[in-house]
Amino acid sequence: MPVTSVESDAEALTMTLVADFPVGPERLWAVFTDPRQLERFWGPPGWPATFDAFDFRVGGYAKYHMTSPQRERAGGSWEFTAIDEPRGFEVIDAFADEDGNPIEGMPSMRMVFSFVATPEGSRLTNVSHFASAAALEQVVAMGAVEGSTLAMNQLDAVLQGLREFAQGKGTRLEILDDQHVRITRLIDGPRELVWRAHVDPELMRRWMLGPDGWRMTHREVDRREGGAYRIAWEPEPGTEGEAFGFDGEILLLDEPRRMVQTEHMTGTDYPSTINDLSLYEEDGATLVTLLIEYPDAETRDAVLATGMVEGMEQSFRRMERVVLG
Q1: Model pTM score
Q2: CA 84 to each of CA 60, 117, 143, 219, 313: distance values in angstroms, whole numbers, following the listed order
Q3: If DSSP states are collapsed to H, E and C, what string results for the chain?
Q4: Amino acid 84: pLDDT
Q5: Which of 183, 228, 239, 300 lies in the 20 to 30 Å Cα band around 177?
Q6: Helix (H), strand (E), coil (C) string for 168-184
Q7: What band does 169 get if pLDDT is binned at 50, 70 and 90?
Q8: How far is it, in rounded angstroms, from Cα 174 to Cα 189?
Q9: Residue 121, pLDDT score
Q10: Nearest to 182 by CA among 307, 45, 25
Q11: Phi and psi of 297, rounded to 5°?
Q12: Which domains does the chain have, with CATH numbers?
């Protein structure tokens, strides 16, 4: 993970994040000054950012909002106060309302981004300066340390490029905390087609099967926010196993980029998960990212122990072969 430390200092009224990357400072500069690249990591997992404005000049403003799986919004704004290309820049960072205006009564802070060359690449140092100890305590209590760590640890895929970062590595699992895991898979194909493969019942039937020897017996998707879905599978003759299925509700739909839905094992009292699917295309390849929220670590471990990730890899290979090939 790139982040090496996040420390708050009550005497200096600062919070400092340090992260190391295997690229030069110029590459870091390019990522932090391009809103489209910023959107890929600035929000923590499950809260991706959308930059609605980015006027990169001293006196200019950037305005963004982050959206949770339940469609909650959290806004922010930057006022650019200093720019020193490619070494860094400074902003006044504030919590913002839906119009991008700072929220009265919420803390704002001076945030300094610094990019320095190292023998291995470069180091990002991000220092937030607070006006009071109360403001620092409030931001830390809101989860700033955990959120900024998770956000910055997403930067590797952006800095390296999708193909270098993920090609040939198959379906990858990251355990983020007791309740969250992130699963990624690079698909060598356009986002539009990968999206259709995830939402078109006829295409789903051709690839979303897990290990060989299974077939999809039911596929019903009401493709709208608030819509229900149900999917079921059964083993082919001669294959061991019992039929099973999932049902749930679509919570958020942003075609062809993001879909959030609940997932419950049909006919059981097992708790539901929240599955947050996002697709990003670069150079003709699509990175599939699935962020899963479990009710607790016990449920997380039980599900992963079923071989879910291995089954997903077999399904993705089938997608590349029979849908994209």
Answers
A1: 0.85
A2: 15, 15, 30, 55, 45
A3: CCEEEEEEECCCCEEEEEEEECCCHHHHHHHHCCHHHHCCCCCCCCCCEEEEEECCCCCCEEEEEEECCCCCEEEEEEEEEEEECCCEEEEEEEEECCCCCECCCCCEEEEEEEEEEECCEEEEEEEEEECCHHHHHHHHHCCHHHHHHHHHCCHHHHHHCHHHHHCCCCCEEEECCCCEEEEEEEECCCHHHHHHHHHCHHHHHHHCCCCCCEEEEEEEECCCCCCEEEEEEEECCCCCCCCEEEEEEEEEEECCCEEEEEEEECCCCCCCEEEEEEEEEECCEEEEEEEEECCCHHHHHHHHCCCHHHHHHHHHHHHHHHHCC
A4: 97
A5: 228
A6: CCCCEEEECCCCEEEEE
A7: confident
A8: 23
A9: 94
A10: 45
A11: -65, -35
A12: 3-160 (3.30.530.20), 164-323 (3.30.530.20)
Do the Cβ atoms of 275 and 261 come closer than 8 Å?
Answer: yes
Tokens of 119: 């023998």
Confidence of residue 324 (pLDDT cuts 50, 70, 90): confident
Distance between CA atoms of residues 291 and 243, nearest Å: 25
Token pair 């699509």: residue = 286
State the average pLDDT over residues 64-76: 94
> Which pLDDT score is estimated for 159?
87
State the average pLDDT over residues 170-193: 93
